[in-house]
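Fold it.
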Amino acid sequence: MAREHFSIFSIMREAWRGHSGWTPTWRDAAPKPEYDVVIIGGGGHGLATAYYLARTFGITNVAVVEKGWIGGGNVGRNTTIVRSNYLLPGNIPFYELSMKLWEGLEQDINYNAMVSQRGVLNLYHSDSQRDAYVRRGNAMRLHGVDAELLDQAAVRRMVPFLNFDNARFPIHGGLLQRRGGTVRHDAVAWGYARAASLRGVDIIQNCEVTGFRRDSDRVIGVETSRGFIGAKQIGMAVAGNTSRVAAMAGLRLPIESHVLQAFVSESIKPFIDGVVTFGAGHFYISQSDKGGLVFGGDIDGYNSYAQRGNFPVVEDVCEGGMALMPRIGRIRLLRQWGGIMDMSMDGSPIIDRTPVAGLYLNAGWCYGGFKATPASGMCFAHLMARDEPHAVATAYRLNRFRTGHAIDEKGMGPQPNLH
């Protein structure tokens, strides 16, 4: 079991020893017959939930079951952006909690997740878009979240390489959140897995859930490819596979699965300091520590469970990048991949009990899943430990679609593909 405390001294010692003394990052556990809590899904949200159950609530008889390997799902298939620049009161406190947890994450879990608060700049290209950003910035500041409205001159000083002079959509300014930035996505999975394992959580890989076992109206465990595992409580945190897993329990949910592509270019010299988003099209870009430009855009727009994307979206994303900064036109695309998004009807997540006793739901993250990882884990752990919503997640109830209390940031109505 990995018990090494990472520090400058342990790194120096292992360098002297030829790095021969490192132990496995986490225990690759075999399933026990029964647990207090079973979390389905070994992605960022599932691992974070297990960690906070153990650390904050003292519940350590926990298993995280993952059908593949740790880091192989959406947590390793995203553009690594973290931010809390939301508009609606149902979202701002939640994502700001996540931002604060990101800021202390590395010290909390004793793992280098490469949290880099390099800033997130959302560009605006019209007077109406400026007014919308003024409204969003004011809402953020009323909740104690940092926000700065920049004019064109300030944006030009910050990112002079953008297309200011010959653009089809001229840049008028931007909304800046300096505390936003990027985090190394797979390090988040590895760090939470290690921290949870150190507190007694079993991380069980290559263990696919194939069904639920029930006693009357209550779940009592999961059927898996490695046998039956009993549980007093079961939490689902399976992202784009939520509909399929929930159907095994007889649930039909207000979400759809769509593919979201991400892209990385060949490595180049330092070019982009922070995260920049294009307001006249859906395009966002940053630069990794290895030098690659990391960028993305819209979902593919049709239902799919395939972890790959289509060429029209590739073309659309690259066109957005060229419109924003033509100088990247000769950079070669190194690779692309797809993650399966569970798009909810209003574009906001669900953290709630299900109608099936003992079964809890963490789903509907749309584009916001990675940035929400710490707060999602904390709030889901709170829900399962206390059987009541966390204070910042009270708006994420499943029944809001029946009562009409939607949290629709984009104002697109009940169309998951448009959020």
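The radius of gyration is 21 Å.
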